[in-house]
């Protein structure tokens, strides 16, 4: 399916948000507000979602418009990859979530692994920085960068969290149904390539 309308809506929203952050002219502010409303109307029309909800979640940020950052912890044990089952969709994903203000990427990876799987972990290295739009994820209203950080277990035990309903380790040939909003099969297979080749360079985009 062609989702050009979604890309246009995101770009219009970003232009409007940045313009509102810097303009000093009252008439320009009105024009940027009109652009922001246009982006909301586009999403409301094509997704049949209430425009008020869209405005709250998609068009309420202020300041210069920047991508969101999603961080995933990559943990192997005995050649198998740690995954958690998300309560949101019942499918499986690498532990992770949105970056938090005040924490480094490594700190977030460790925190998410603990909260979602119960394991204590330590960061080892950055594996990949991917622009989500290039990697087969479902369309969404945000521009997202994904950071994959390899970690090693230092303690703890398998335990579900607020957002997860199961914890497991899976071999490359036994992957469960994946939460493709969070990670794709191709991405997880790439993580196994890093397991086989510790000298594999970091992947960008």
UniProtKB/TrEMBL annotation:
It is an enzyme of class 3 (hydrolase). Residues 66-192 form the Nudix hydrolase domain. GO terms for molecular function: hydrolase activity. Its cofactor is Mg(2+). Its EC number is 3.6.-.-. SUPFAM superfamilies: Nudix. Keywords: Hydrolase. It comes from the Bacteria. It holds the Pfam family NUDIX. PANTHER family: ADP-RIBOSE PYROPHOSPHATASE YJHB-RELATED (PTHR43046:SF16), GDP-MANNOSE MANNOSYL HYDROLASE (PTHR43046). This is NUDIX hydrolase. It comes from Paenibacillus ehimensis. The lineage of its organism: Bacteria, Bacillati, Bacillota, Bacilli, Bacillales.
